[in-house]
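Sharing a chain and its predicted structure for anyone who wants a worked example. Both blocks are below, sequence first, tokens second.
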Amino acid sequence: MTEDSSIMDAAAEALASMGVKDAVAVRRYGNGHINDTFKVDTAGGAVLVLQRVNTSIFTDLKPLEANVRRVTSHLAAKGVKSLEVLGYDGPWRLFAFVDGFSREVVETPADAYATALAYAKFQNDLADLPPSEIAEILPRFHDTPDRIRQLDEAAAADAAGRRASVAAELAFVDARRGDASRIVDLVASGDIPLRLAHNDSKSNNVLVSDDGSSVVIDLDTVMPGTGLSDFGDMVRSASASAAEDEPDLSKVRSVPERFEAIARGYLDGAKFLNEAEKANLVAAGRLSTFEVGVRFLADYLAGDVYFKTAFPEHNLVRARNQFKMVESIEEQSVAYEETVRRIVKP
């Protein structure tokens, strides 16, 4: 039995256990790095999304389920369109299908603005849900110094025998260690508060319907964090001129028109930000991008145990891509800071 046939059999069993007896088509859906997702058509005309959670990453399923149910029910009670949970069975869960499209690469400032506004609205809609009521599913998820520690451990172990080939990338990280703790230090000092954040605010985690409304999806990482991590990851993904695994680095840069659109969209929607948060938006973009590059590099050194890969050097290509984005943000940091000041003070 092949891996794919095995998982399809398991998917059919999970659907039956959650009361879906009339599935007529089950096929893989989306291109997420972590979980296995399927679109399900039923004889009765219902369209569903079935997902198998990656238990090697999300090791404790009960608090994960509780988080997703708590967040979706909170949004539903406010009349906010969100995912509709239909059932859980171990690592499997079932949602109503949300029609719409997502953007793998944001191509226009208008799209960047819409993405940023969607995440700002998502944070606003959760602002009255106490962070203490949501479990920290992945501890220290956006702790950049801890991510560097994990990279150091992966480099020391060199489990896949790849360290010698990434000397330049490790040197790139070494040159930026001094600023890596900037945001976590501000949280520790109390200057930046903990908030509920999505924590994986890529453009492809926003579904846009034909009527222009948006739904933020992939809620597994919604947990206490900072607004800056969501803003930073939008800069990383939505201001990028190419996909995060584009191997031709001459095509990779942070597009200033998109950065401005992201800043405008986020600041138009995120009315809760304090002065310290506003002052560190550009730093958040740089550090979020750097952190993801560090994660890709660590996974490459560990033998590709976290992110799904399509070819042997996929994670290395991703890491180099992200580090090129870091350089682009660094080169434009003065202009980006001025952009933020101009938006904050009209």
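Comments welcome. The longest strand covers residues 36-42.
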